[in-house]
Structure formats: C-alpha cells, structure tokens
Backbone:
C-alpha cells in the first residue's frame, strides 16, 4: 500500500523526517518500513501542500491510552526523502473535486485530507499515487 501524510513539516527540504504519534485514517495504521509515502505540509500549520515523496524507514504503533473508550489509532514514523515536489498541490488545487463518487484521484485526496481537516496518515489508491507521482 502507498500512503500520504498531512502534518506540520517545519523543514520541507529536510533529508529525513520524524513524525510522532500521528493520527491515522483510511488504512493509515498499516504503514510499515519500506512503504512509499507522500508528504503534505499542512496548510493549517502554514504549509503549502505536497512537498516531497519518501520511504518509511521505521514505523511504530502508539499504545492506546487506558480509560479512553474511542481512540483513533496513532503511529510514529521516520521517513527518508526520495524526491522533492516540482509542482504545488494543496487544498486550493483539490477543493474543486468534491463529487465524492466521481472516482478521480484528486477527489480521493480532497476527501481523505480536507473533508475532515485534521492532520493524519492515510492509505491511498494506486490511482491517487500515480496522480501524485506526476508532481515529481
């Protein structure tokens, strides 16, 4: 599976990244070392959307807190950057794709990242991954 993360990325051009206790949705909790991941600098944190592609070098599930009934699975990952995005792709680019049943990769990304604006790791389809690859 291929993944994408939207989170605060302080230094988008860094060669390695560590993301601690990240929320997961849409299959994101299955992320593992060796997986490809697309990195989006969260616009909620002043970022510009898609900034890089990388490979996960380590992944560790975060233990659930005792006494809390409903918890979104969280995972900590380390990523080695393999490419920098050559063209921007952010919320403004994806916002027009809101027909949730149209099957377009842009719509999938808009739905998974921006329908609920929280930062997260998500699993993406091969179709969405091919679309993102065109940004590199």
Residues:
């Amino acid at each position: 599976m291929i993944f994408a993360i939207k989170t605060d990325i302080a230094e988008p051009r860094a060669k390695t990244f560590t993301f601690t206790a990240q929320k997961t949705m849409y299959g994101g909790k299955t992320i593992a070392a060796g997986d490809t991941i697309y990195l989006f600098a969260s616009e909620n944190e002043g970022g510009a959307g898609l900034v890089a592609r990388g490979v996960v070098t380590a992944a560790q599930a975060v233990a659930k807190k005792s006494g809390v009934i409903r918890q979104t699975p969280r995972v900590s990952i380390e990523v080695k950057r393999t490419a920098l995005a050559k063209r921007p792709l952010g919320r403004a680019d994806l916002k027009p794709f809101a027909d949730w049943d149209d099957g377009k990769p842009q719509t999938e990304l808009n739905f998974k990242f921006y329908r609920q604006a929280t930062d997260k790791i998500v699993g993406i389809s091969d179709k969405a991954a091919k679309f993102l690859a065109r940004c590199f």
Notes: The chain is about 15% helix and 40% strand. The longest helix spans residues 105-114. The mean pLDDT is 95. The domain at 2-133 is CATH 3.10.590 (ph1033 like fold).
